[in-house]
Each structure stands twice: as structure tokens, then as C-alpha cells.
Design brief:
The chain is an alpha/beta fold and 300 residues long. It contains nine helices and 14 strands. Bound molecules: NADP nicotinamide-adenine-dinucleotide phosphate. One of its GO terms (molecular function) is L-lactate dehydrogenase (NAD+) activity.
Length: 300
């Protein structure tokens, strides 16, 4: 069973993908019980006719017992200017949720989706003392999707012609698009862009959510697909390589912080942390990003 904490926009979009692909049974746990039940009732009509999966809703955390995967998409409100705007309320919320997950699902793999992503991933792991390989913050893969989209628009090409578009670091303003690895039809993109182009694309990647917010209330489908891919990799024991937030213990020279770095995911959670070679500027920006997240954690 997959338990999804929070049946708002993101939680329901993830559940819809899981259900239509018959991945596993879904349980929504939402603060407002009627919303959990209502969303489950709606999505239950999307279960394929030949499928055995089920979907239900509750406000009772004890029902998550036995879940192999728990996805946290709960949110206490909507931020307007920065993902860290509601940090105190979100940290209080994740502490409460982490106690319940620890009590009812001590062996689960936990995917953190709620913001501020890296801070909450760190707090969850520290509160529960779950193995850091089982606490995965999902966001850098979404940021990488956005980076790939912006590059495809810049060059007027299909996204499929772009490989290794990777964003590391904070799911926030200090995120680091890694230009040195991106290839277009096999050619290094760094040679096709000048510094000013790179700066513009970096800023557009960091501000993608702000541009989107001018046109719709909040994003849901991109993060849902990226989270679904991770859930499927865990269930199918595929080896999926994506950037995700994990508590670091010396990797990339960082400790006491969680941030987005490339990892390999399989049925056990994070099987391997991948340390890639970055250029001097990217290394410097990643250090700044790690320090930004650490400062948020220290300010709590
Ligand atoms: N990682 C990423 O890349 C990414 C991308 C997009 C969004 N996000 C984040 O994902 C989160 C969810 O976004 P959203 O648009 O889905 O928000 P939303 O529509 O407001 O849904 C949040 C849901 O969480 C529920 N909730 C609040 N506290 C809870 C608790 N203690 N236990 C159980 N449920 C609780 C709310 O219940 P009520 O019905 O009572 O209000 C609400 O249904 C936000 O933090 C957002 O910033 C992350």
C-alpha cells in the first residue's frame, strides 16, 4: 500500500497516476477527512477495469500501518513569494507527521514532497532516525525537467534531443543548473551558450514556479510525474538515476544538510549516492546552496 499524506492538488495528481497505472493500493490521509474521502471516491472511478488496486481516504493515521511507501504532500497553506515563507508551520507539521509515520510505519520508504523541501527532508530524517537511504526528497528531478524544457525552448528543439539536463542543490532560489553535463544531440551545450545565456536560463529555472503562478494557482502535474517515477522504480525494483534530496554525510564535502544530488533508486530506497564531477563554478554554487539550506535549518 502507498499512503499519501495530504489529498490536495499534488497528492491527488500523484494518486491519479499510481491508480491509472495500477501500481498499488492508495490511502489518502488528510487533515480534513471529507476531502480525503471525496478525492478517493473520484479517483476510484479511474481504476482500470482489470485492476485489483483500491483507493480510500481517512484522517486516521493509524490506517497507514503496513504501507511500504509513504508520500508526504501535506501543506498548511500557500506561500506567495518564497518556498520558505511558511517554514515554521511546515516544520511543526512535518514533526507531527514524522512521529505518526515512525509509530505506524517504521519500515516505510518515505518520499517528502512538501516545501521547503530540503529543510523538511532533513527534519524528517532527524526526527525519525530512519535510514537516510529511506528518506527521499523529490524536487530536483522536477527542477531538472524545467531546465530541460527551458533549453528546448531556447534552441527550438524537442526535449528528447536533450540529455543530462540536471539541477542540483536547494529546491529554491539557490538551485544550481549544471550546464557542464548537458548535451544536445550529443554535443556539449556549454559550447553553444555564452555566460549571459546561461545566467538567463539559470534564473528562469529558479523562477519557473513564479512564472507559472502568474498563469495558474499552483503546479501539480510535473511533480506528480516525477514522484510517480520514483514510486514505480521502488515497486518494480528498477534502477532509476535522478537527482533527489538526501541527508548528506560527507558527500560533495557536505554534512548536516539535505540537498538535491544524483542518486540511484531501487526497491530499498536510495541504493547509491552518485558523486559527479562538477566544474569550479558549479562546485562553488553548490556550496552556497548547501550553506543556504543549512542556514534555514540553523534558524529554526
Ligand atoms: N517538491 C516539489 O517540487 C513540489 C512541487 C509542487 C508543490 N510542492 C509542495 O507540495 C505541497 C502540497 O501542495 P498542494 O498544492 O497539493 O497543496 P494543497 O492543495 O493545499 O494540499 C495540501 C493538503 O495537505 C493537507 N494537510 C495539511 N496539514 C495536514 C496534516 N497535518 N496531515 C494531513 N494532511 C494535512 C491539507 O488538508 P485540508 O484539506 O485540511 O486543507 C490539504 O488537503 C506544498 O508544500 C507544496 O509547496 C512541492
Amino acid at each position: 500500500m502507498i499512503s499519501i499524506i495530504g489529498s490536495g492538488k499534488v497528492g491527488t495528481a500523484i494518486a491519479f497516476l499510481c491508480i491509472t497505472n495500477s501500481l498499488d493500493d492508495i490511502l489518502f490521509v488528510n487533515r480534513t477527512k471529507s476531502k480525503a474521502i471525496g478525492e478517493a471516491l473520484d479517483i476510484s472511478n479511474a481504476i482500470p477495469a482489470n485492476s485489483n488496486v483500491t483507493i480510500h481516504g481517512t484522517d486516521d493515521f493509524s490506517k497507514i500501518s503496513g504501507s511500504n511507501i509513504v508520500v508526504i504532500t501535506a501543506s498548511t497553506g500557500t506561500y506567495l513569494k518564497s518556498r520558505t515563507e511558511m517554514m515554521d508551520a511546515q516544520v511543526k507539521m512535518i514533526k507531527e507527521i514524522s512521529n505518526k509515520i515512525k509509530k505506524y510505519c517504521p519500515s516505510a520508504i518515505v518520499l517528502v514532497v512538501s516545501n521547503p523541501l530540503d529543510v523538511l527532508t532533513f527534519i524528517f530524517q532527524k526526527e525519525t532516525q530512519f535510514s537516510r537511504n529511506k528518506v527521499i526528497g523529490i524536487a530536483s528531478s522536477l527542477d531538472s525537467s524545467r531546465f530541460r524544457y527551458l533549453l528546448s525552448e531556447k534552441f527550438g528543439i524537442k526535449q528528447s534531443q536533450i540529455t543530462d539536463a540536471l539541477v542540483m542543490g536547494e529546491h529554491g532560489d539557490s538551485m544550481v543548473p549544471i550546464f557542464s553535463r548537458v548535451k544536445i544531440n550529443g554535443k556539449n551545450v556549454s559550447e553553444m551558450l555564452n555566460d549571459s545565456d546561461k545566467k538567463t536560463i539559470s534564473t528562469e529555472t529558479q523562477n519557473y514556479w513564479r512564472s507559472l503562478r502568474l498563469l495558474k494557482t499552483r503546479s501539480e502535474f510535473g511533480i506528480a510525474k516525477n514522484t510517480f517515477d520514483v514510486i514505480r522504480a521502488i515497486i518494480d525494483n528498477d534502477e532509476l538515476v535522478i537527482p533527489a534530496s538526501i541527508v548528506l554525510n560527507g558527500e560533495y564535502g557536505e554534512k548536516d544538510v539535505a540537498l538535491g544530488i544524483p542518486v540511484k533508486i531501487n526497491k530499498n530506497g536510495i541504493k547509491e549516492i552518485i558523486e559527479i564531477k562538477l566544474n569550479e563554478q558549479e562546485n562553488k554554487l553548490l556550496k552556497i546552496s548547501a550553506q543556504t539550506i543549512r542556514n534555514y535549518i540553523k534558524s529554526l
